[in-house]
Amino acid sequence: MEISEPELLRATSPRRVLRGFGRVLRLDLALGQKHWEKWSRPTRQIGQFWSHSWQADPWAKVLLLFLVCNGMPAIVVGTLAALAASFLCGFGILPGYLHTPWNHPELVVEQGPWSLASGCVSSLLVLLLLRSGRSVFLDRICIHQSDEHLKGLAIMNMGGLLKNSESLLVMWDSTYAERLWCVFELAAYLKSHEDSSCKLMVRPVLLGPLTLITFFVVTLRSCILVAGFPVVSKDVLAGLSAVAALLAVCALQVQKLRGYNRSMEALQHQLSSFSFAQTKSYCCSANHKDDNGAPFRCDREILLECITLWFGSVESFEQCVQSKVSASLLSGLGSHALPYSWILAASSPFLWAAADSAASLFRCGEWRIGLPYLLNGLAWWLAATPALFVVCGLVSHRLRARADRQCVDLLKSIVGAVFIIILALLAAAAQQACFTLVDDELHAALAFSGGMTLLAGITWRKCKPS
Ligand SMILES: [Zn+2]
């Protein structure tokens, strides 16, 4: 697994890959530019090797890469901007509108949407505009696409390329385990890092759209809170349209999660019965002829040579995929569709909206009411939302089977979404009950936060789709 020519070890940067909203990942090679290799440069070590299936939804992959590369800085900057805005609001520097706080109809305070707005705007700007300088490997850019000789050499050296990669990012989708190239890359990475540290990151492609949908659901819910119509009170029409919008995005989320659960089921089956002969590759589907009808060599022949060289035989390779690769992929995917840190990032608008509410109360000196508001926001952010997400995962798993008729299938997702919204309303009712039953608001907020933390801990550990 050594590189025969140092020139073949090339890397690019996420900035190049994500240019033009990931044009390199979205364009059909036959229609687009063929000289992407100009965007790569020779290197001595690849930071992260990006492994993906060309059959996966390209927009979902682009969204996922934006989040993997810029997600954390986006949330950190968004939260800092939201805190700065809430300080400015709390000290009366930013203007606000008159608002009656939840649970205190006798009070009228001056509140602004500054924290929520600045958090959302700054995090989205960082997400889209930050350009990471790390070195990554993407096949279309780092392997010559128009020179068949160089392309063949790079394929022969794939083991060396993977051996010289510090980590591997698997962008998993339902086609990943049936593509020969994808399985080969993962197996070769694990093989080449048997004696060194193996940094494998498996992220479902679906995580990109799912995280953004969650972010918008939470933002919408936070807007409803900040604007001051909890569900249906003063303004029935505004309340109802907000609930309808929430239901629509929530149903979309359940729909996506149901698809994810079906893919996970298929993956376990694919890996347990993996065979080299049944895998698919682009070269064979194109009949080994390029766009001009000129013949090119089958990748399977080259890969077969590499497999025999590194794994001993095709049977050993298949055995490695059925055991080691399967275990790494499934443990990398985890029990929950969204990792806890991703849920926290996606539900940050809850925290930003709570900072708005607290700032409006701090502004008029109501510290004893403002502090419980902030605690409630933290409880929704750190505990209630992750717990709701776990239940959402379970409901989607239960409803995963696709219905024959599209309208029935959609109805299943709507039913799931209604169930989740009812649970969210129950959590809101529990919060209300704590504040009604306990006289001291700080104690009431502590009771609600403690209860939610306990509930989240139990659901996160115990409730896993089987
Ligand atoms: Zn072929």
From TrEMBL:
The keyword Transmembrane applies. The keyword DNA-binding does not apply. Keywords: Membrane, Transmembrane, Transmembrane helix. The chain crosses the membrane at residues 62-94, 114-130, 205-230, 236-254, 337-355, 375-395, 407-430, 442-460. This is Uncharacterized protein. It comes from Effrenium voratum.
